[in-house]
Specification:
It is a single chain. With 144 residues, the protein is an alpha+beta fold. It contains 2 helices and 8 strands; from the N terminus they run H-E-E-E-E-E-E-H-E-E. 22% of the residues lie in helices and 38% in strands. Mean pLDDT is 88; it is low at 3-9 and 11-23.
Length: 144
């Protein structure tokens, strides 16, 4: 076996092993919440409710999500992931949803390492805003 071929085959073997090692460490973590009017800060009343299912790829920090809701006082005017904040505490938006905001809302976002750490620590919530409740009508804290 000639020398360049030997180095090339070893290099390809090493590259394959490294890509397998990275893939083996990849993990997808699912976060869920059930949104209600009572979880808003301050709490609201009404029939609004919804669900969020989001999956974080811990290698790429790519968050994919599906949000469903119903029973709001009117059309959704905004919807966001917020953080860092625990239950009962408000925080600024971290990931805003783009129109259309009709249920279901689906999409993806790449998070910063800090955002991913806050999400993993339970410091993110999701809420949906309406004209009658511009600060948010339904909310839920994301947990895994």
């Amino acid at each position: 076996m000639n020398l360049p071929y030997r180095y090339l085959s070893r290099g390809l073997l090493l590259a394959a092993f490294c890509s397998f090692a990275v893939a083996a460490n990849a993990e997808s973590i699912t976060f869920k919440t059930h949104m209600t009017t009572a979880q808003e800060v301050p709490p609201k009343t009404g029939d609004g409710q919804g669900d969020v299912v989001a999956t974080l790829d811990t290698v790429s920090n790519k968050l994919t999500y599906t949000i469903t809701y119903s029973g709001l006082s009117g059309d959704a005017t905004a919807a966001h992931f917020h953080g860092p904040a625990g239950p009962g505490v408000n925080a600024g938006p971290t990931v805003a949803m783009k129109a259309p905001l009709a249920s279901p809302i689906t999409g993806e976002a790449t998070l910063s390492p800090e955002q991913a750490a806050d999400l993993m620590a339970g410091k993110w919530y999701f809420n949906v805003h309406t004209a009658a409740n511009p600060g948010g009508e339904i909310r839920g804290q994301l947990i895994h």
